[in-house]
Design a protein that fits this description.
elongated, ABC transporter transmembrane region fold, alpha/beta, 2 domains, disordered C terminus, 12 strands
Amino acid sequence: MLKTLTAQIKEFRLPSVLTPVWMVGEVICEMIIPVLMGFIVDNGIYGSDMQYIIHTGLLMILVAVCGLAFGMLGGFFGAKASAGFARNLRKAMNDNIQTFAFSNIDRFSPSSLVTRLTTDVTNVQNAYMMILRMAVRAPMTMIIAMIMSFLLSPRIAGIYLIAVVLLGIVLYFMLGSANRYFKKVFERYDALNESVQENVTAIRAVKAYVREDQEISRFQKAANNIYLMFVKAELKLAGNMPIMYGTVYTVILIISWVGAHMIVSGSLTTGTLMSLLTYCMNILMSLLMLSMVFIMISMSSASARRIAEVIEEKPDLVNPENPVMKVEDGSVRFDHVYFSYNKGSAEPVLRDISFDVSSGESIGIIGATGSAKSSLVNLISRLYDVTEGSIAVGGRDVREYDLTVLRDAVSVVLQKNVLFSGTIYDNLRWGDKNATDEECRKACRLACADEFIEKMPDGYNTWIEQGGTNVSGGQKQRLCIARALLKKPKILILDDSTSACDTATDARIRRAFREDLPATTKFIIAQRISSVQDCDRIIVLENGMIDGFDTHENLLKSNDIYREIFESQVGSNAEADFDSKD
């Protein structure tokens, strides 16, 4: 884990090294000042030497200014190093997330990834800042102050040493018991973010079903869980400050009492006692700072592990050593394919799937909900890998292709259509960033999106809100289809992508595909018979297996499942419920 995280320091190694150096300089300056104060009292005030007081005072000012400069430099370089480290951590996580296969993403919930990219990185950033500054400053202050104290009075310095050892033991046990609660806190953050994410994303459904009270209750429960965990952790640390300050004041009283007797006996000067009292405060305050550093490190250790998990996650799908860089055509061949989302699953999602599709064919896929229609088409562009068997595209196994080349040749319009904030042109050019305006308009005509775009005040420059919230479901589907067409794919997959369109629009889209994309292989998943009946052939899926694969007419004669779906949708109202051939 440490190796993974420290590798992200990269170009901020120099600031990371300079920060502790400046902090050591600041500590040295601070440790000189108490000695100079003692000299002023003993030699200047008691000796009535004003010139000595002025010279030593000016020297103190110079040392203080140097200490201030060192402190400012330490703060500047520390902030630069920690902020840069956090930036690199976020970049490393985001870059690796972009390489994840669907199976990798399935192992991390979106809410968990958001927490890791935000809260967890912030915790590690704060901890790194404290390590560079306080974790150097506090022990150096303690060591130098202890050395100076022993040089001035070994007897009184022994009192410090005993107090430091006792406090160190107490803090060790307090922090150890609190650490396990901090580890659990960030798991609760995932649940909180998940609640917020679902609530905001589905706010229309929340409003429509008047579920505001239930969602508020759910959020309060998640927030309360974090509160309770933090309370438990803080209770373990609640005694930290009282014990620290109680020890500080006790040691000061003991030193004052012992020091007063030593001054009376002539074995200690007043100035030396002042210096010793200052060093006492420095030593015990540095111990307090160390405890804060340990608390921050304890809190951030759980975050550091969660960040390292994302960075170290290896994508399940990788390019072969010598990948094929060209897809010859849109032909597809499934050869005894089995597939499971979980490798250890006893029951595969797809079982013994075999079929051949020629380039340019139009293939419909129909079946009951849960029959694995989406799972089947996800394998074509290698969003998942088969468990057994093989899939060939353009005559080559999909595992032989460069992933980018394969996916550029396959356009997929998924069930959940996603649009991004930006103009309609911006969204369309996800399919081809170099597409001309005319190419964008042509794709929209094929997808029957031009009819509503041209009615908008700004036309193709209309701004789309995040998630496409300012367009209807059917409009969103047609824009996503147009975006997919701009890739000029050899294979086009529509995963129930016209479900929000009326049957007339659905029919026009299918007619456009037949007339304008004759060389493109088309897979059309649908719940409506009318959406697939014009396809060259239709696959009927049932419980992850092919129950039939033939033309619409032949399936009506030979396949019970297809005929049952047809009759349930069409019945005696054929003209009203599905389109005749165009």
